[in-house]
Request: fold
Amino acid sequence: MKLYSYFRSSASYRVRVALNLKNLPYEYVPVHLVREGGEQLKPAYRQVNPDAIVPTFVDDEGHSIQQSLAIIEYLEETHPEPPLLPKSPVDRAHVRSLALQVACEIHPVNNLRVLKYLKHTVGADDATKDAWYRHWIEAGFATLEQRLAGDARTGKLCYGDTPTIADLCLVPQVYNANRFKIDTTRYPTIQRINDYALTLDAFARAEPGVQPDTE
Reply:
């Protein structure tokens, strides 16, 4: 198995956790998103992923899969233990909804492509760009905090006490929030879940600071 990844990519971070939880060894292939204008934009990587984004996952049979949640669902289907989704349909929908709130509502407006467009095309200065970043994380975290704090299914993690795809999405987003100096103590349930998750080996080994391409 092979994972094209960048240490600070939150989407790649999600997949690294999933691979660790399922005890699947893989080759880490670094794709630097900033160096030399972005290695993801070069022809060699565009042959791997025409969208020029990470992660890209290649399984043992050579099948290439893009998009972090699609990769995680593929791993869930092909390596079902330990499960990353609950058994009941309504709880599975709940966990997917939490994951998608991060992956589809918070993260996309703050990813590198958007920030570069704001700065280089729209002409936003760094202060405006950073304010944009913080606004969308804070808006998303405010409602996510309400959902997690008010749901009896929330335990040490987003759903009970074992990791699900919701935690795989939440923890990298908290990492991003910390990078931009957002006060995550305003979201105590999110903060508590993140702190507990990082005590688990699968999450700790996936952290950006311990990846082969960490700077």
In short: The domain at 89-203 is CATH 1.20.1050.10 (Glutathione S-transferase Yfyf (Class Pi); Chain A, domain 2).
